[in-house]
Structures are given as C-alpha cells and as structure tokens.
Amino acid sequence: MLKAVIVDDEILAIHLLEAMLMESNSVDVIGKFLNPLDAYTNILKLKPDILFLDIEMAEMSGIEFASKIEETAHLMDIVFVTAYEHYALEAFNVQAVDYILKPIDKERLIKTIDRIRQRRGKLGFSANTLLDEDIKIIGSFHFHVHSGRVYIANTSLVLSTKEFQILFFLAQRPGQIFHPSELYKLIWAEDSIGQTKALKVHISNLRKKLESASGHQAKIVTVRGYGYQLLFE
C-alpha cells in the first residue's frame, strides 16, 4: 500500500481527500498538515511515497514547498491538488507527477494513484523492493533511498531528483538497453511525444558526475539506434 501525506491549509479539503484515498483501499494517509512549515520538518521522517500538495497556502506556496522538498526527497512523488488551473506549468517544472483540480473527481484520483503505483513498481521504488531500507547496495553504488544520497568509490554524488531516479532505475538493470522514449515515460510519468531533450541533458550530467567520482567503475553508454544502458566494470 502506498503511503501518503496531505498538505493543505483548508481542513475540509484535507478531510475530503483523505476520505477518497481511504475508499481507494490502496493509499494509507500517514500525515496531514495545515501548515507547510510543519509538514517540511516531518516529511523526511515519515518517508511518504506520495505528497498531495495544495498550491495557494498562506505560510508558503505549494510550488515553493515542492522546490524545497525535492532537494532531499528524491523518491517521493508530488501531486498538486488545487482549484487553480494557471499553476500547471510551474507545477510540472518542479517535477510534479500530476496536477488535479478541485473539486476532486474520484475516478481521476484513482487513475493518478494507479499510474503512480505502476510507475514506482517499474522504477524499483515500490515498498516490496525497498523494504524500508535506508541503504540499497547495487553494484558499486550505495543508494540512501530515502534521503536521495548516492555514494560510489567512497565519493558522494550530488544528484537532482531526475538524475537520482534515472541512475537508480538503470543500476538495477545493468546491461539492459532502454529507448529514450521508454526511459522518459518512466521517469517523467508522461509520453515524450518525441521530446527527450531533458533526458539527454540529465544523462550527460550523470556521465560527467560518474566519471568524476568513480573513474570507470560505472558508466552510462549510448547504444546507437537503441538507447541507453549502464555498465559496471
């Protein structure tokens, strides 16, 4: 079962969303916060799979909160739940996996949950894969899965959320080749529609960081005409 935290400065909105999530029988609400500042100090301890986040809040906007929390919570999926359509572009710029308008449509919410569950399973973020471990050793890597830190050759890699997710996914499948559009859809939770430039940028950054930290212990290779693969040496 997925674990979720709700952050919204309206108590009624929290209760309504919590009731819908409970009815889905697939999400356990482990935290509810009216104040985003209180939420921030607790989320890293709670380690939720999903953060349902309002945008217009008095203490801190949801966009600002998401930008801040994603620096340290690389395995958490953010879903914005708001009454305003015009924040959509900003929301996806901070790596949200979905954007749901209030009043919430139950079927729409269920589709979002199902998509997140399937995506997390494919990426290796499911509870059965992680088993609540803080450290997962894969090849030469030590992934601190809940804090988002990665070590190789006793060196810490400073990675963005997307870089962490790409590396974590590829490291669990060394030697397997993934087409850019397939990898993009898994990481960004949407079809690439031929636009994989963002993926190429992250792959390029990862290559530089891996080479700097580990020499040639691990590298991401482009198989021309097919895609990317990670190799350990």
Structure write-up:
It is a single chain. This protein has helices at 11-24, 36-46, 62-69, 88-93, 106-123, 127-130, 161-171, 180-188, 197-214; strands at residues 2-7, 27-33, 50-53, 77-82, 98-101, 135-138, 141-144, 149-152, 155-157, 218-223, 227-232. It is α/β, with parallel strands linked by helices and 233 residues long. The protein folds into two domains: 2-128, Response regulator (Rossmann fold, 3-Layer(aba) Sandwich), CATH 3.40.50.2300; 133-232, Arc Repressor Mutant, subunit A (Orthogonal Bundle). It has a five-stranded parallel β-sheet, with helices on both faces. Helix 3 links the parallel strand 3 (50-53) and strand 4. Helix 7 (161-171) packs across helix 9 (197-214). The longest helix is centred in the middle third of the chain and has 18 residues, at 106-123. Residues 128-132 have low confidence and may be disordered.
What's a concise summary of this model?
The chain has 233 residues and is of the alpha/beta class.
